[in-house]
Every structure is written in C-alpha cells, then in structure tokens.
Design goal:
It is a single chain. The protein has 14 helices and 16 strands. With about 475 residues, it is an alpha/beta fold. The chain folds into two domains: about 375 residues, Metal-dependent hydrolases (TIM Barrel, Alpha-Beta Barrel); about 100 residues, no CATH class. It has an eight-stranded parallel beta sheet with strand order 3-4-7-8-9-10-11-12. It has a four-stranded mixed beta sheet with strand order 13-16-15-14. The radius of gyration is 21 Å and the shape is globular. The protein starts with a strand and ends with a helix.
C-alpha cells in the first residue's frame, strides 16, 4: 500500500497491484514470493524518499517517518492483510503501508514441445503459493494471485482451465508468439468461454498488432455468447492485453480495443518518452464506447449497462482508468521502468484524478479477480458475519480453521475508487465459512457497495437493516 496525502491534505490509501509478474518455477527465470515483497518494498521506499526530497514535483506527499525495517514475510502475507481496511496507529506501523499489496504472477515460457500441456507446471505454481505458518500450518499466500498457463491448441486445454480453477488459480496466461496459435481462432474462443464460466480472467502476451486481433477475438466471443443466450457469462469474460503499450502508445486500434467493456490493458513496456502520449490517448476512452462495442449490437443500452455495472461498476467519469492496470513484467527488462512510471503517476504530469490513480494502481486489476466467497451463479459460500478490525484477529481465524482459503476484496468506485472491506474465507470442521471486515479508511464518507446482491446484508454494516441496496444500485446505474 502507498499511503499519502494529496494537495488538500486528505489521506489517500492506494492499494498497489502488479498485474504482470513471473514466479520462479523449476529453475526458470522469475522471482520467489519473498523476493517480491522485499524488492517492491524497497522500490516504494525509494519513491517516498524522492517525494520528500522533491516535493514540488509531486501531487502527493508522505508526511510520516520512514523506517529501515523490511516487513516480515509471513506477517506481511497473512496478518498484515488487515492494513488494507484498518487505519489506526498509522505513524507507528508505517512500514506495513509500504509496498505492493498484491501480485498477479505466472510461470515463464515452458520449454515443452508444442502444443504444450501446462497442467503439471500449473500445479507447481499452486504449491509455491502455499505458505507455512510459524506453527507449520499450511495457508494460501493471500498476497499472490497465481495464474496458470494454457495453450489453446492443446487437446486438453479446457481440462487445463478446469483443473487450474479447481486448484484456486485466479486466471490464465496465453502467449500467441511462444505457442504459435492464431488469436481469433475457435480454440481461443472456446478457452475464453470456459474461463468466463469460472469467472476468471485471461492475460495475453501482445505486441505489434496483436491487441487489434485480440479485440476481434473478444468481440466474436461476445457475439457467440449472445446468440447462445448466455448473457450471464458476458460480464465474466475478462481479457487483459499484456504489454499494452507495445501495441503502440499512439495506435488508435489499441485504444479502440481498450474501449471494449470486456478488455483491459496493463502498462509493462511503457517507456518514459511515451507516458504523455499513452495517457493522452487513454483519456479519450469514453463510457459511451460500451454501447458501440462490437458483439453487443443486438442488446439495448439498458441491457448493456445492467450487464456490466454489477461486475465492474463502470462510471462515466473514470471509465478510461478502470480499463488500465499497473504492470511491470518483473523480473524481465520492462520492469526496469517501474520506478520512473510510479514517479510519473504520482507527479503533477499525470492527467487523472485520485480515483483514476487508484484504478491504475490496483482497483482495475482487483475488479477482475474471481470472488469465491460471494453467492452467485456457480459460486458457493456465504458471508457468516460482519466485524470491524479490532473485533477479530488472524490468530482467532487460524484457531478456528484448518485452512484459510482466500480473501475477496469489496471494491467500490463511488465516490472514490477504494477497498471498502474484505471477506476472509476459511474452513471450519470441513465446512466453508466467511467473515466480512468493514473498512475503517475514510469512515465518514458514504458507503456505496458495488456488488449489491452478493451476501446477506442483514449481517453487513454497510446496510445494517438490508435497506437501500437496490435503490443504491439503481441510482448508480442511472
């Protein structure tokens, strides 16, 4: 998290997510989970140091004292998750608020013959992201969103997706250059549909004109889902253009693709001399583009808006930034531009407002993650309680559970893009339970929940009596 104050002395807690990283698997180039935490903590400290030394160049300030201590890896990945929703004693625990909160990570290219079967390597990713507590108790590493790999040309591609989803992988990467497949092929569209069934995103390696081809593939997939009368799957179709700037920071076809409500981009490969060009063009991505998106022509404006609102909470003012996520390609060469890009985004040169910055830093990526704790079609689980931070601790959850399954973040867009709470899901005597922790950040501002039908609002402190939920959703849609 990067905790700063803006020019009006208002505290902003930016949740930080790197949407494109590589984890070290079986000797291939990548980072170990502990290396992610230490490397990103140092990078954020360098940015904060720069903010202190050159305050006039930055829109934001960091008025707290920096500590030399590096966060303990286990505490950071488990207990310190509470810093996402808790704001007491900031000055005493500022180290917890420095660094990236989450990492989308996947293995590097695998040297198997084509077509590739990634099921074994995907299992290795899952195993790498299972940590042991000091008591040797296994827990999922909640800071990492492990993505698998899938080759759409492999005969068992759909089984690869199914098995990965069952293991708890949060998404899949496809690499058309490495795996020699055509982006707008039936095999790719079939994989995208299966991913939509599991509500998990796909990220594609792209360069040159691949973003344009991916746009056509997504449009064709949406068109097929409409014809098959599977409208419920359309907002679950989430496709990330990896290395989006590599398609050309001044390429109108790239930004036309990013205008599609199912397509997103991450910023790895964006070079300093292209910052202004890229964001100037990105600002032209308009909310109205949703209703002109290819594949959706047969739907009414009301149908399109209702489809996408509950999934992404698109707003007219910040639609463009909700389509862009921070990414580095760590540890590959594009990652060397991480600090210059962070510096630019925090400076007066960045043309967006704080909500735009919150989207790019983390909210855009978090909205794409599957939410296992929420009640929805094909998704089990129910929130069993609603508590504030000081009423429960990780130790209590660990004492009651055999395994923490994961966390889901309640992300809101109005009036500010931010995390409004988290849901922790765990096992108790073989049964899944979830607990909702209400955010304490910006507690005086209005509580507007995006996903209005996901759990029992009678237990939620957002709407204590279960009243006003549908009215709030309708108001935000209109």
């Amino acid at each position: 998290m990067l905790l700063v104050k803006d020019e009006y002395e208002q505290t902003r807690n930016f949740i930080m997510v790197d949407a494109h990283t590589h984890i070290k698997v079986e000797g291939l180039k990548g980072l170990l989970p502990s290396e992610f935490v230490s490397r990103y903590h140092r990078s954020i400290k360098e940015i904060v140091k720069d903010m202190k030394e050159n305050p006039k160049e930055f829109r934001y300030s960091f008025p707290w004292k920096l500590e030399k201590k590096i966060p303990d890896f286990y505490d950071f990945c488990q207990r310190d998750l509470y810093t996402l929703v808790h704001s007491e004693d900031i000055s005493k625990h500022i180290t917890r608020y420095l660094g990236f909160d989450f990492f989308i990570t996947f293995p590097s290219d695998i040297p198997d013959p084509l077509p590739r079967d990634y099921r074994r390597i995907n299992e290795s990713v899952r195993q790498l992201l299972t940590e042991k507590s000091p008591k040797r108790k296994p827990h999922n590493n909640l800071r990492f969103f492990g993505f698998g790999r899938v080759d759409p040309n492999h005969s068992d591609a759909l089984d690869t997706v199914d098995s990965g989803a069952q293991m708890g992988l949060k998404g899949f990467k496809m690499h058309p250059k490495s795996e020699s497949f055509k982006i707008n092929s039936k095999n790719v569209r079939n994989v995208l549909k299966r991913l939509a069934e599991h509500d998990i995103p796909a990220i594609f390696h792209t360069q040159d004109d691949m973003g344009e081809k991916l746009h056509k593939a997504v449009a064709k997939t949406v068109e097929e889902l409409v014809k098959e009368e599977k409208l419920n799957l359309i907002p679950r179709l989430k496709v990330i253009i990896g290395h989006a700037p590599w398609n050309g920071s001044d390429n109108p076809k790239l930004f036309e693709a990013l205008s599609h409500p199912n397509i997103f981009g991450e910023l790895s490969t964006l070079k300093p001399d292209s910052y202004d060009t890229f964001f100037s063009n990105a600002r032209k991505i308009e909310y109205e583009a949703m209703f002109e998106a290819p594949g959706l022509e047969s739907l009414t404006r009301k149908e399109v808006e209702e489809l996408y609102f509950l999934s992404f909470a698109y707003s007219k003012r910040n639609y463009w930034s909700s389509k862009i996520a921070f990414g580095t390609d760590n540890p590959y060469p594009p990652a060397y531009g991480m600090q210059p890009l962070l510096r630019y985004l925090l400076s007066w040169d960045f043309p967006g407002n704080p909500s735009d910055l919150a989207n790019i830093f983390g909210m855009s990526a978090l909205r794409l993650m599957p939410h296992g704790a929420f009640t929805s079609r094909h998704i089990g689980g129910k929130v069993s309680g609603a508590v504030e931070f000081h009423e429960i601790g990780m130790e209590e959850i660990e004492a009651r559970s055999t395994r923490i399954l994961g966390i889901d973040l309640i992300v809101e867009s109005f009036p500010m893009a931010r995390v409004n709470g988290i849901v922790i899901t765990y096992l108790v005597n073989g049964k899944k339970e979830s607990v909702f922790l209400n955010a304490l950040f910006d507690d005086r501002e209005g509580k507007n929940l995006i996903r209005g039908n996901l759990f029992d609002f009678n237990r939620s402190k957002l709407y204590p009596n279960g009243e006003g939920v549908l009215e709030e959703v309708e108001k935000n849609i209109s």
